Input
Amino acid sequence: MALSLKPEPRSSFKTRVKQEREQEILQAARDIFAQHGFEKASIDDIADRVGIGKGTVYLHFGSKEELLLALMRQNCAQMVAGCRARMEGASTAPEKLQAAIRALADHRYANESWVRIVASEMPVFMGFKQRLAASSELRALLVETIQQGQAEGSLDSGVNPLVAATTLLFLVFATPFLAGQKRMSKQELIDTVSRLYFHGISRR
Output
């Protein structure tokens, strides 16, 4: 019996080509931002890295700021996937949050130059609402987990879930920058964040 191989619809082929080009541009932008910093990087640098004209970059992204925001959304999506994968083996909310802390710490240390850009430069160029929107899926996952723990009685029901989720993200991503000259190891970060997050600083 002969197999009928239908050609790929032109519209889906064009979409795939567009997506592949956008990924090439995003990867180049990430590299250039990490190398030169956001302010000194230019669209020309990014276009040269991909091997395309500057106009082609603008066909996909309207500005450097738009590229930076797209990179943050992509980065947060990767963190959500990593957290979900780690959480699958956990049953209680505290266990899931501990798994999330490890996943986020892994991501942070594997992408240190990018994290530094987001922490030091993105606030200057992006509004708070834009940054909040880019990380909304990640925060929503943590909020959902915290609410689960409150419902099952393993987490304090008097704590605002959104504040608790935001605090967790701040602890993981900002703590190493606040540690001074001594570089904090990944395990030290995980231990410190876990202790602060689940037990606080009181000896009670």
Q: What stands out?
A: The chain has two domains: 17-62, 64-199.
